[in-house]
Design a protein that fits this description.
The complex is a heterodimer of chains A (about 675) and B (about 170). Chain A has about 675 residues and is α+β, with helices and mostly antiparallel strands. Chain A has helices spanning about 1-30, 30-60, 70-75, 80-85, 90-115, 120-140, 165-180, 185-195, 200-230, 240-265, 270-295, 300-305, 310-335, 345-380, 385-405, 415-440, 445-475, 480-490, 490-510, 620-640, 645-665, 665-674; strands at about 520-525, 530, 535-545, 550-560, 565-570, 570-575, 585, 590, 595-605, 610-620. The chains are: A alpha+beta (about 675), B mainly alpha (about 170).
Chain lengths: ~675, ~170
Amino acid sequence: MAEIGYLSVIGALVLATLSAVSSALGAARGVPELIVCGRRSLFGMTALVTAAALILMRAFAVHDFSIRYVAETSSRTTPPLYLFTSLWGGQAGSLLFWSWLLAAFASLTLARQWKADAALAPYFTAVCAIVTGFFLILVAFYANPFARLAVIPADGQGLNPLLQHPGMAFHPPTLYLGLTGMTIPYAFAMAALASGRLDAGWAMASRRWTLVAWLFLSIGLTLGGRWAYDVLGWGGYWGWDPVENAALMPWLAATAFLHSVMVQERRGLFGVWNIALVILTFTLVIVGTFMTRAGLVSSVHAFARSEIGMPFVVFTGIVIVASLGMLWWRLPMLRSVERIESPISREAAFLGNNLLFMGALFAVFWGTVFPMIAEVVLDERVTVGPPYYQRLVMPVFWALVLLMAVGPLVGWRRSDSAALRRSLSRPAISALAITLLLFALGVRHWIAVVGFGTCAFAGIVTLLEILRGIRTRMRRGESAAVAGFRLFVLGRRRYGGYLVHLGIVLLAVGVVGNVYNLKVEATLNRGEAVDIGEFTLRFDGLETRSEPDLEAVVARFDVERDGVVIGSVSPSRQLFRLREDQPVTVPSILHRPLEDIYVLLGGFDEDGSRASIRAHVNPLVSWVWIGLVVLILGTLVAAWPDAAEERVLNTELQRLLGAARRTSAPSTTSHAKS
Amino acid sequence: MTAYRYTALAMLVSSIAFASIHPTIMAQLAESSTQRADAVASRLNCPICEGYTLRDCPLPICAQMREEIKQMVEEGRSDEEIMGHFVDLHGPQVLNMPPARGAFLMAWILPIAVIAGGAFAVARSLFGTRRTRTSKGERSDAELNGAPDAETLARLERLLEEREAR
């Protein structure tokens, strides 16, 4: 079976090459037969990659330990859910998984979009085939998941225990869907450059698919954060480590694009910038993938030893040079005839938004690569940890939250600043009142005062905007419920976007909670208690629990407040039978609306009389998750597909508008072309 | 509207002033030795495992090191001395922020320079356009030549807006 899997990969690679060559040739020479051949080859490639992935999954299901990858990442005692996730538990499998998702994404887009964007489709096919082909080359020649072992072991080594968590089951696939999904807008942008069809058509297609990819990337980041919080045991959810940053950077670039593309749709501005952003997003996806997959993160030297390092460097170089070359070639066609008319306009607000996102992105990028540069150039080992990012990125984050309050209220073209002040003054004063109230209630840390105030301001403005929409509909005689429903169904893009903004506000509230984090370390005899903030933790004893694949020591603690037991926590230490060298300390968390009580078991006496613990009180953490869920729901609303005819109509309107703009300013256009 | 603005500003200024002299705040500023030890530990990496700060690391040996930091704080040593002690023991990579000296300054300066440069470029493009706009007569030429007028454009844009925001 493994040989058939490997042959499928090779076959898929052949079809990818065929698809790329015949699509590009067919489009350039105008040969419809070649274009159809390219399209069919891409579907064929997808079928073969799917077959290869299914064969590998089957090998996990039947415990075929003659395959090295299966032996290294699973065992007979691995629970079924994690047997399935072992597919991406190591490098070779995750590269195959990556190719599979990419192929599926490309085929899905092609099936949906073939008619609407007929001029772009063949070039789109070629780009998708090239990118998938690259990953298939890695699978086929550098990291073959179907490689056999000379000696077949009786049992496998099992999946890394840290990865055996529901969050980890769904985090990689969603994250990968988000990252591979960013290939689709990139392929549209490249197709637009290659074909010269640079009207708003490519931007609309790219926006739609970026939103889909962004949705998955957001879910992936959320699950990753939740996994870190539930499993890693340091009490936080975001550690700014290079692997996290690698996924955050494309997210930041894509977020910037999702905002600035609206300016292109509405005003025909930012054409060059938007293509540059799509290229940047895709490049960050590739760079991020190879940073994490090729070990560049831990050390430059580990990277140099990695087999897939060099191909990645070459491919990244080709992507950057080819994309920028194409952009340069088409630059004369991309000059926009319109200009930003006033600093107080939606366009200007989006420009500010992009500046801030790029600033945050650069700070994250620089912090991530600086240790590598220092190692190579200065020959010194430095690390860049959370304090660096907190100092550089958090101010930008708060500026973005503030802009989020102002931006949506500014009109396109030019806005009356007095009217803007009028619509902002009431939310501002309400926010100030809330801040003063919180201050009176004892919120005194300056970050908390500024942070809550900003959140209140942005939250009120956004809620008022939604309310205004509902009221407008109610005036037409709709009931409140119907009006609210129709608002979100018919105005998906705008009101879905507002939901995302509300999610960010809630997330920001949770982030502010950080300044009030408490931590206590204590060693307790049974019955003894330790105070942390307004809570008391009482040690209630130890018990051991035995399961097929692991042995766990569980400590029980009652959580008391004012002498009343309000809940209990049971942190544990787990020893997986196959990885006895790697004990896992599993934190236990009592979630409350205003704070989490997070307890970790350190050492203990075997007889259960003593245990040492580390306990955190993390205020408002729940709001981080609630905010992210709201953000994801909002994205779902915004990304929910329009009916096909609606889409065509919108594209036509865009084209008409673009054409009208071009003819209305002929002198500027001809100037740009010369 | 200006009355609103001044009220808001006055409230903001007075609340900040109040915050800065309030006894609780002052108490927070004069940190306890535990808090200071925590602050120092959060600026150091765990020397053993990757990706944890010393403050967050769950290993027992790191708990000992945190205890050590606390003792040093109580002995009256400065933050720099304590961090220097750990750098001597474990090398410079134990610090989780690049020090603000020499070539390491680039870690800090470059991102700030990029944001400042970007802000400058944005500001110039925003405030520079006003002048070019008032001085150019291209738009009216186009209108004279019988191309779609501003009204048609505006109608199209309105149509789009309605579709987008019903």
